[in-house]
Structure formats: C-alpha cells, structure tokens
Automatic annotation (TrEMBL):
Keywords: Hydrolase. InterPro entries: AB_hydrolase_fold (IPR029058), CocE/Ser_esterase (IPR005674), Galactose-bd-like_sf (IPR008979), Xaa-Pro-like_dom (IPR000383), Xaa-Pro_dipept_C (IPR013736), Xaa-Pro_dipeptidyl-ppase/CocE (IPR050585). One of its GO terms (molecular function) is dipeptidyl-peptidase activity. SUPFAM superfamilies: alpha/beta-Hydrolases, Galactose-binding domain-like. This is Peptidase S15. The lineage of its organism: Bacteria, Pseudomonadati, Pseudomonadota, Alphaproteobacteria, Hyphomicrobiales. It comes from Rhizobium loti (Mesorhizobium loti). The keyword Hydrolase applies. It comes from the Bacteria. PANTHER family: COCE_NOND FAMILY, PUTATIVE (AFU_ORTHOLOGUE AFUA_7G00600)-RELATED, PEPTIDASE S9 PROLYL OLIGOPEPTIDASE.
C-alpha cells in the first residue's frame, strides 16, 4: 500500500469530540477534517461502531479517515453508546436506540458550521449493517452509503441462522461481544474519577446475547426489524456495496444491486472480512480512491463517472491448490452493465439418473471440519482446506472431466427430492473443483433446515418416510474451473462446526437432485481495473507481544470425540501517541462424537487487557453451549480485574427450547 502524507487540504484531528444525544447521553467521536473547514465547509462521513476507536479499529481508522479528511471531508468515527469511550448502555445489535443515535449524529454533523449539510455513512460488518438500516430510515442529510461485508436479511444471511440452520457463529459471536463489551473506557478520555463508574455500570448491565438470539429460531418480527429486504424501496441514498468471496457475507452485493431502486453499484473481490485496500488474499484495490469517487459525486456533485460504472464488478478466481490460507488468488476482474446479467445462462445437470436407486445420505456428525471459518478474519489458517475428508463423509456426484474451462458466476441452485427418517433434518450441499490428482477445492456451499423448505417464518416438521422437495441456494461465487478438472457436488446432513447438528442422527434418501449452474461466457482478461491501494500514515505502535494463530483437530481414540481447538492471540501493542497498551486472546473448542449429535459442545475463553504506566485492567470471559434433544443449554461468566484484584464477576445460565432446529 502506498502511504500518502501530503493531501490537497491540511488535516486537523479531534481525538474526543463529544456529541450529546437528545436524551443527554454523550457519545465520544474521533473526528478528522480539513483545517480550513470552518471557512470552506465540507461534507461529513460517519462510521458508527461498538468496536472502540481508541484501541479496536484504530489500525484501519488511521489508514482511512485522515485520507478522506485530506480530500475535503469531515470524517467522524463514533463509539456507539455503551462501548469504548461513550456513555450509556448497549442491549443488542442494531437496536432502535443505536439507529436513532446514528440519525441524531447525522443531523448534528449536518448542522455544524464546518459541514455543507451533506452526509455519507460507511462501514464494514456491523458498520455495513447499520449504515444500510439507517439509510432505510431516511435521515434528510444522508445522501450516500458505502456498505462493506453486510447483509440485507438479519435472519437468513447473518451470523445467526443460514437456511434456517443454527449457525455456530450465533454462539461464537455472542461470546465475542461479551468479551468486547466488557472493556472500560480510557481514563484519559473518561476521566480518572469517572472511568471506573462507567465500567462497573456497563458490566452490571451487560447482556450475553446468545440466549436472546436463540429465543427467535424462526424468521419472526425480531429479525424482520432491520432487515432491509423487507422494503428495499425505503433506501433513497446512493449505495456502493462491497464484499469478498472469502467472507461470510458474499451474497449481499447481488441482493442490493438486484433490488435497490436508488443508485447502486457492487464490487466483489477475493477478500476475507476486511476493507479491500489492505485485505487478503491479494489483489487488494484502491478502495479509498474508489470511495472518493463515490463521495465526490453524491456529496459534492462532482462529475466522477460513478453513475456510469458497471452495475456489478466481480473477481473471477482461478483454480488453486486447496490451502488454509492463500496470500494471493490469481484471476481477473469482470464487469456487468446490468445485474442479474443476461449474459449468464443456467446449465441444468441431473445428478441422479432417472430410475436410479435413491442415494442415502447419513453423514457422521464431524463432517464439515474442512470447511474453514464462517468469517475468515486473521490472515491465517481459516480458509476451507482440501475437501476430500468431508467428501469422504458425504454422498457426492462427480461430473465428467471438463474439455474446456468454465466461468461460474452467480448462485448455483440444487433442487432435491427426498425423504427423511426424522421430523427434523439439515442438508448441506457443496460445489467443489476436483483437480486431476483428486484434490478438492471448495467453490461454494449452501445449507438448509429441511423443515424450512417452504418458509423460514412458518417451518413444518417432516413426515418420516414421506417424499418432499426442497431448493438449496448456494452462496454467490465467481470461479474458473479449468479444462481437465471436474465438478463435484457433495451432499451431507451434517456440517460441523458451521451449523449445529439435528437432535437425532438422520438418514436422507435422495430420489432426485438437479444442479442449476450459472455460467458466464469465458472472460479473456480484466474487463475493469482499479487503482493500486493507498492509505494515510499507518498507526504508530510498539509491539509488546507478537500475534499468533493455531488450529488443531484431534480425535480421542478412546472416546471417539473429535475436537477442533483454536487459539488466536491477537498480540499486544502500545500506542506511541497516547501510550495505551491493549491485548487480546481468543480460545475456542468445538467437540462432537461422529455418532452422537447430542455430544456437540462449544466453549470459548477470551482475555482482554488494557494498561498504561501503573494502571491496568483485564477481563476474562468464558462461555459454553451444548444441547439435549429438547433444549439448548448455555452458560457464561465474566471476571473483571484492576491489576490482580477482581472487581466484578457474574454468571449467566439459560435453557432455551429447540423449535425444529
């Protein structure tokens, strides 16, 4: 990445600009703007997050927000209430209070003498979600949005449920937020006599969100609120949607470009869950330059040509050897002037010949361990590996060797006719690229709780032995399969630890299965290009402890239990400006017996540390999830320390009935 140190306008930073909400709650904002903005007002750009501007998102903030400010914007990074250096309490993600606070910050910014009255909102992940949801509320000053790694459907395409299956990330993310939100404000911001009171109040009111999310196992009103797919027409601001093929939110770009009536464009690269000016796998792109084109047009009225950009730009990845991490994905950029594209045709492939005997799917419960992380995040061994171990535990349908390469661009769909021996069953379908030597690379996958075959809102139990049909939509993808390779469609009824297992072992009998494969005419080279990445001066730090990442799969030969153990030490660093030292370690174990779905368990343990000179705090959080045939059983614990003295402890325990999950 090229570091830019000289900008068209000189930048001034305000590290703690207090923004008082109508109810009196003070939100802490870090603001960058041109030094002369008071004389020459500029548009504002808002990023509104719970992830702590002081020590959480500071790495990416330093690259991004001063860059925008140097090009004529007031760039505002707000700690949401109840997080970081802000006052108040947070009780859930995307609450009405959170969204209203963002609307109030937008109104506040638009009214400042240094603002020209036009505001944009941006963000990745949580910030990508809430900027779309805020746009749907239509605050008058909000003219444009850049949403990265986000979703349009909080139930069907988030970290909670997928295809009506319970994602393991539902518990994993609740455990993460329990740890994240346990940290105090910085005494240099909150005050030496006040930070501790704010911290203890925060801890006393902290929620463990997994039980709340598990109380809504179907697509009810809880999930509909904030799902912009309920009314795409509510968004009037111009939307630039960006995502990555190695991210969990790869479908959103297509959904937005297909459905939004406001101006909208989409870009999908080969990336994990990161901003694309520093993301991996490479190639990264000049995201900040692309963002400036968007902001300059919609917030300043400049003729940048963004309205004439292709509707959908996607990176078609070449076939590579399976690996848990790829520093680079060779391929090419393609561009579609409209999306869905009339150039993409669906090829139908019958996987089961008519008149053949049913294919019996009865996967061991540990099928899925080659699938990788739902959200690869650490530039480490989190991507899907060689799929052969999972293929061996699945029923798979190999296609003939390709005599010519093909470009798969879009969402593959598999229609199945089946019967089940249980009233609840899951199905997981993977599309793989099989190399000449047998190595199997994951292209895309989809999962479906078969009781949700007709509706996520009103699921119906299966009648054992009765024939039914279902449509499984795999994730969007853009992938070139070369000549001499073959396609494999692998079907299982377990996918651990991506989805929680059914309460009983299941046997599915597939009597018919048809793949609809979206094929695009073969791209001969890049059809669009991007500038090389740029950024402002990086965050200045001193490493105290290096980061490291480990993953192990172990089988206990005595008990048969298979355990995935994960340790992500995010290291510890000292900020060379204000001296704060922050560190974080996450540990997870996911265990299951191949023959027993009720043996499934997940455990997490997070450590957070903050210190400066003689001041130090630490929080430890633990959580555990298991289930019996009727209930999900959850527990968690927080411990908070000043130095080595424990100052707070709390336990959470809850049992939630299963509802066809």
């Amino acid at each position: 990445m090229k570091t830019i140190t000289e900008f068209p306008r000189k930048v001034v930073e305000f590290p703690d600009m207090g923004i008082v909400m109508p109810d009196g709650c003070r939100l802490s904002a870090r603001v960058w703007m041109p030094e002369d903005a008071g004389d020459d007002p500029v548009p504002a750009i808002l990023e509104h997050l719970p992830y702590r501007k002081r020590d959480g998102t500071i790495f990416r903030d330093q690259l991004t927000h001063p860059y925008f400010a140097g090009h004529g914007y007031a760039s505002i990074r707000v700690d949401m209430r109840g997080n970081g250096d802000s006052e108040g309490l947070m009780d859930d993600e995307y609450s009405e209070q959170e969204l209203q606070d963002a609307c109030d910050v937008i109104a506040w910014a638009a009214a400042q003498p240094w603002c020209n009255g036009n505001v944009g909102m941006m963000g990745i992940s949580w910030g990508g979600f809430n900027c779309l949801q805020v746009a749907a509320k239509q605050p008058p000053a909000l003219k444009a949005v850049i949403s990265l790694c986000s979703t349009v459907d909080r139930y069907a395409d988030d970290i909670h449920y997928k295809g009506g299956c319970l994602l393991i990330e539902n518990f994993g993310w609740a455990s993460t937020m329990l740890s994240f939100s346990s940290r105090p404000p910085d005494p240099l911001i909150a005050g030496d006599n006040r930070w501790r009171d704010l911290w203890l109040t925060r801890l006393e009111n902290q929620s463990f969100l997994a039980p709340l999310w598990l109380k809504h196992q179907h697509r009810d009103a809880y999930w509909k609120r904030g799902s912009i797919c309920e009314d795409f027409s509510a968004i009037h601001a111009a939307v630039l949607s960006i995502g990555g093929w190695h991210d969990g939110y790869r479908n959103t770009i297509s959904h937005l470009v297909t459905n939004i009536e406001a101006p909208v464009k989409g870009i999908v690269g080969p990336w994990i869950h990161k901003y694309p000016h520093y993301a991996g796998p490479r190639p990264a792109i000049g995201f900040l330059q692309e963002a400036l084109r968007w902001w300059d047009h919609w917030l300043k009225g400049a003729e940048t040509g963004v309205e004439n950009d292709p509707a959908y730009r996607a990176y078609v990845m070449d076939s590579v050897r399976p690996a848990r991490w790829h520093p680079e994905r060779p391929g090419r950029w393609v561009a579609e002037t409209e999306w869905p594209s009339p150039t993409i045709k669906s090829q139908t492939i019958d996987l089961l010949p008519k008149g053949s005997r049913p294919a019996i799917v009865a996967s061991p419960q540990n099928c899925g361990l080659a699938g990788g992380e739902y959200f690869p995040f650490t530039f480490g061994p989190e991507l899907p590996g060689d799929q052969r171990p999972d293929d061996a535990l699945s029923v798979f349908f190999d296609q003939p060797l390709l005599t010519e390469p093909i470009d798969i661009v879009g969402a593959p769909v598999v229609e199945v006719t089946f019967s089940s021996d249980r009233p609840q069953a899951n199905i997981a379908i993977r599309l793989c690229d099989v190399h000449p030597d047998g190595a199997s690379e994951l292209i895309s996958y989809g999962v479906l709780n078969l009781t949700h075959r007709a509706s996520h809102e009103f699921p119906r139990a299966l009648v054992p032995g009765e024939t039914a049909s279902a449509r499984v939509v795999l994730d969007q993808c853009a992938y070139r399969v070369p000549a001499g390779h073959r396609l494999r469609i692998a079907v299982s009824n377990a996918y651990w630890p991506v989805i929680w297992p059914s309460p009983q072992p299941v046997q599915l009998a597939l009597s018919a299965a048809t793949l609809a494969l979206p094929l695009r005419p073969l791209a001969t080279g890049d059809e669009t290009t991007f500038a090389e990445p740029e950024g402002a001066t990086p965050w200045a730090t001193e490493m105290v402890r290096p980061a490291s990442s480990e993953r192990h799969v172990d089988r206990d030969e005595k008990t048969g239990i298979v355990t995935l153990s994960i340790s992500d030490d995010f290291g510890e660093v000292r900020d060379l400006d204000h001296g704060l030292v922050n560190g974080s370690i996450a540990r997870e174990t996911w265990a299951i017996h191949p023959d027993d779905p009720l043996s499934a368990s997940g455990k997490t343990h997070w450590t957070q540390t903050l210190s400066r000179n003689e001041w130090s705090v630490r929080t430890e959080t633990w959580a555990e999830m298991r289930s019996d045939a009727e209930n999900f059983i959850l527990s968690a614990r927080i411990e908070a320390y000043e130095g080595e003295k424990i100052v707070f402890e709390r336990n959470f325990e809850e049992k939630i009935p299963r509802a066809l999950v």
